[in-house]
Design goal:
By secondary structure, the chain is mainly alpha-helical. Helices cover 53% and strands 7% of the residues. The chain is built from four helices and four strands.
């Protein structure tokens, strides 16, 4: 069983898939950091110093004034964290756009076979020699062509 597992794990497709998953996870972390640290802060500043990751609604009643999701979690308050959801949507859109660009480029690299060119010659039915397609008479055996 161990030998079979080793053969399975060492196949090219399995290794390629493993590398793809690892690269994908690393790319996801880069995109998450890009969204949270680069894109959302300027948008939040433009919208009046809003920190998107701290946008939430309190579900239920509370006597406390809560400003962040961390404060709400520490107080044990149930919240609807729509700011984190917005960050996740932006992450998804960036990753989807990057995958679109990658697939588009790969499609450009993989050339489709060009259609076969129209024939310019044909064979004479009498002597089997090659003659131009528009010929009315064979130049080799002089037979009339239909």
């Amino acid at each position: 069983m161990l030998k079979e597992f080793k053969e399975f794990a060492m196949r090219g497709n399995v290794l390629d898939m493993a590398v793809g998953i690892i690269i994908g996870a690393a790319f996801g972390k880069i995109v998450t950091s890009f969204v949270e640290d680069v894109i959302m802060p300027p948008i939040g500043k433009l919208l009046g110093h809003v920190e998107f990751s701290d946008l939430f609604l309190v579900l239920g009643e509370t006597n406390k004034s809560l400003r962040t999701v961390a404060e709400a979690k520490a107080a044990g308050v149930v919240t609807l964290n729509y700011g984190l959801f917005l960050n996740t949507i932006v992450n998804f859109l960036i990753i989807a756009f990057a995958v679109f660009l990658l697939v588009r480029q790969v499609n450009r690299w993989t050339k489709k076979p060009e259609p076969a060119a129209a024939p310019t010659t044909k064979e004479c039915p009498q002597c089997a020699m090659t003659i131009p397609i528009a010929a009315k008479r064979c130049g080799h055996c002089t037979s009339a062509l239909v």
